[in-house]
C-alpha cells in the first residue's frame, strides 16, 4: 500500500471582517468551520465515517473556541462520533502545521484520510483573549531575551534592518488588493471558496475584505499604528512606517484540506490536486519575530533539492508588508510569483485558518497557470515559521 500523502481537495470560506457586523460575525466559530468541512465532504462524495482524524488549527482557543472547535463542528454536521479531532496552536501557522501533521501521519502509515485546516472568528473571540496574566514569558526567558516587543514593533525593526521604505510598503499593499480583486473578477477565487450561510440565511460567497479602489497614494494618508516614544528611544533606527493599511486585516474565516494517501485516492476514484515535496519548521530571533520564513525557505528548498527559480507560485503570509518584502530581498525570487493572487493585506488573516487559506491560494493558482511547484511560508509569533513545497498533479 502506498503511503504517499496527497491533497485531494482544499477550500476556504469567504473572508469576513473580524468585527461585529462583519459578514461572518453572526456565526459561532464551530458553525463556520462546519460548513467548510461539509462542503469538502459533499463535493468529494466522501463517506465521513472513513476519516481517520480531524487536525484543526486555532490560535485563540478561548471563549467560543475553547472547546475543541473542530470536534464540535464535525458533530454539528451530524457526522459519526467515532471520528476524533485534535487542535493545533502554532500561532499564525497553526493550520499549515495541521496539514504537515496530516501528511506526516499518512506517510508514517498511521492514517489514510485526514481533514486538516483551521478556524478563527476574530469578531467573536478577539485576538489576545486567550492570554492569561501580565507576564507571558517568565523570568528565565526575560533574562535571556529582555524587553520583548509586540509584532508591530518587530515589523518596524524588520523594515529598518532591510531598508524598506513606507512608500514601498504602501505600493506593495495596494498591489495585494489589486491582485486579489483581479482574481475575484476573473472568477478564480470562486474555485476555492465554499459559500457560507449566515445566521439570517444570507449566503456569502465573496470576500468582504478586498478593497478594490485601494491605491498607494490613499494608503500614504494613514497614520502609523505603533508610534511609541519609549521604544523610539530604544530603537532609534525605527522610521515608524507600519499602518493598518500595510498590515494584514483582522478577519473571520475557516479553511480545510482533504489529505489522504495516494492509494486511497486511487481506490476512491479521486484525482489529487497536489503532492507534498518537502516540509520545514524553524525558529529564529524572538525579538525580530517575523524573520523565520527566510531560513525556513532556505531549508525547505535544500530538502527538496530545488532552487527558488524553480518555484512557480510563492505564498509568504502578509502579516505586515515588511515580512514578504524582507523575504524578497533575501531570496531574490521573481516578484511576479510572490503572492500573485493577493495576500493577507487584501484577503485578511484569520490566524488559525490562514495556513490552509494560503495553501488553497497556492494550489488553485498553480492549476490556473499550469505551474509545477509551489512554496508557502508563514511568520509566527515567537520567531517561528513553517514552510511547505508542493507539486501540482
Automatic annotation (TrEMBL):
Residues 270-392 form the Thiolase C-terminal domain. Residues 6-262 form the Thiolase N-terminal domain. Keywords: Acyltransferase, Transferase. SUPFAM superfamilies: Thiolase-like. The active site is at 92 (acyl-thioester intermediate), 349 (proton acceptor), 379 (proton acceptor). GO terms for molecular function: acetyl-CoA C-acyltransferase activity. It comes from the Bacteria. InterPro entries: Thiolase (IPR002155), Thiolase-like (IPR016039), Thiolase_C (IPR020617), Thiolase_CS (IPR020613), Thiolase_N (IPR020616). NCBIfam families: AcCoA-C-Actrans (TIGR01930). PANTHER family: ACETYL-COA C-ACYLTRANSFERASE, BLR7806 PROTEIN. Belongs to the thiolase-like superfamily. Thiolase family. This is Acetyl-CoA acetyltransferase family protein. It comes from Novosphingobium hassiacum. The lineage of its organism: Bacteria, Pseudomonadati, Pseudomonadota, Alphaproteobacteria, Sphingomonadales.
